[in-house]
Amino acid sequence: MKKYNVVVVGGGSTWTPGLLKGMCTRKDTFPINRLVMYDIDAERQQTIGEFAKVLFNEEYPELDFSYTTDKDEAFTEDVDFVLCQMRTGGYAMREKDEKIPLSMGLIGQETCGPGGFAYGMRSIRDMVELVKDVRAKSQDAWILNYTNPAAIVAVALQEIFPEDNRILNICDQPENLLRSYGKLLGMNERDFDPVYFGLNHFGWFTHLYNQEGKDLLPELRENILNGGFRPADAEQRDQSWLDTYAMVEQMVRDFPDYLPNTYLQYYLYPDKVLNKLNPEFTRTNEVQAGREKRVFEDCARVAEMGTSKESNVVHNDAHGEFILIVAESIAHNKGDNFIVILKNNGLVSNLPDDAMVEVAASITVNGPRPYAVGEIPTFYKGMIEGQYAYEKLTVEAYLEKSYGKALQALTLNRTVVSAKQAREVLDALIEANKGYWPELR
User: Fold this and answer.
1) Using CA atoms, how far apart are residues 371 and 348, in angstroms rounded to an integer?
2) Is 47 helix (H, G, I), strand (E, B) or coil?
3) How confident is the model at residue 344 (pLDDT cuts 50, 70, 90)?
4) Which CATH number fits domain 4-171+289-332: 2.60.120.260, 3.40.50.2020, 3.30.2350.10, 3.40.50.720?
5) Which residues contact 263 (CB under 8 A, 6 or more apart)?
6) pLDDT tens digits, residue range 241-277?
7) Where is the Glycosyl hydrolase family 4 C-terminal domain (predicted)?
């Protein structure tokens, strides 16, 4: 069996240990010859990198592993897969994405609303640069992208690299939801045949078939309405994520047709969610005090002790495993079904063809072969069209350096609506993102 050369971009991420553990778990089905972790933050990556050395020494000693801050070392002609999970600006900018809108009475969240807009404007530049760096060395490497906000990044990459068929934008949240549905029903998430439509962080499951063809969505709906909803890995989640999943019950009660992506809470109930957010202690602060602290302390302890046997961060999470099983499906032409982000081109027949929609697709060596959804009802069509207009205008604002289009984008966003507030938050975000955004005119 062929062994693959893999680069992980964003090696200093708190999600990387789970990804590395996934590589160990899947070494017989997705064997790796050489793994390089790449990050521009040497200090963060070193902690994860030294942990990785111990983990691989115990579980994957034949793996050729290294980590670097030099892109010329990372991206070589023989790379097969580049797995991207960048965060431009790090937690310092994420905190501003959350706290600036909250200071103005608006939703402060990293991928939704004004915070998602700010993050998207930063991510576009670095993702475009990364694609160019990879393609300068290899036209054949698969670029599997987790970088958020994935919806905006996907629109930008499609606009700038329309002929590059080896860029695949993905998100692990539908996978997290499938795992959580599986736990409720006592099933493995891979045994589901889901039907899903929407944009990234803005979609719905319409059917959830089992292997015998029975739609389990009605049963799952009743389970959620009667018993609430929790993530499959609830014991490893911070409180804000438990609150987020709990909101699914309210969404299903109000809109019972389909099962929603958790992120829809920000768009359907912005006033209710806003009242629960603490402008002095946001999700960034919770991550820094929670997962960030746990992961880096544990990785440092593993490196010092020289063993990962008692590590608390090497469990197989959805984030780490999902990107690997997608890569495995490509590598072995398995044609497994996953929910991924693709150009619409009629998949949802009453949405614009250029929208980057999130749908189920069979993933092959030649890329995704998506399943058409057909026509969707007016409510969902209207929601998606407004959100896609916001995403498209955000990308156009970046590419054209247009203040006007940035203002239009934020005015359209359901978490803002008011043009006055859109202008106020835009001006504050421009000031905070100097050096990251192009100068808007």
Assistant:
1) 10
2) helix
3) very high
4) 3.40.50.720
5) 111, 112, 173, 201, 202
6) 999 999 999 999 999 999 999 999 999 999 999 999 9
7) 196-416
Strand, helix or coil for residue 430: helix
Question: Which pLDDT score, from 0 to 100, does residue 372 have?
Answer: 97
Reply yes or no on whether the pLDDT at 119 is more than 80.
Answer: yes
Q: Where are the domains of the chain?
A: 4-171+289-332
Q: Which residue has the tokens 């807009």?
A: 117
Q: How far is the C-alpha of 217 from the C-alpha of 192, rounded, in Å? A: 11
| 267 classed as catalytic | no
In sequence order, the 6+-apart residues with CB closer than 8 A to the CB of 320 are: 15, 17, 18, 19, 20, 21, 22
Yes or no: say if 436 and 122 are a contact pair by the CB < 8 Å rule. Answer: yes
Q: What is the mean pLDDT of the chain?
A: 96
Secondary structure of residue 353 in the 3-state scheme: coil
263 catalytic per annotation: yes
**What pLDDT was estimated at residue 238?**
85
Length of the chain: 441
| 0.90 exceeded by pTM | yes
The owner of tokens 């099933």 is 187
Cα(80)–Cα(3) distance, rounded to whole angstroms?
10
Helix and strand numbers (H, E) in the chain are: 17, 12
CA distance 63 to 31: 9
The residue among 84, 67, 78 whose CA lies nearest residue 141 is 78
Give yes or no for a contact between 113 and 266, defined as CB atoms under 8 angstroms apart.
Answer: yes
* CA pair distance 152, 122, nearest whole angstrom: 11
pLDDT single digits (tens) 283-336: 999 999 988 999 999 999 999 999 998 887 766 678 889 999 999 999 999 999
Catalytic residue among 39, 126, 172, 298: 172
Q: How far apart are CA 242 and CA 229, in angstroms?
A: 9
Residue where the block lists tokens 């309210």: 250
User: Which one-letter amino acid corresponds to residue 92?
Assistant: A
Q: Which residue out of 38, 196, 263, 267 is catalytically annotated?
A: 263
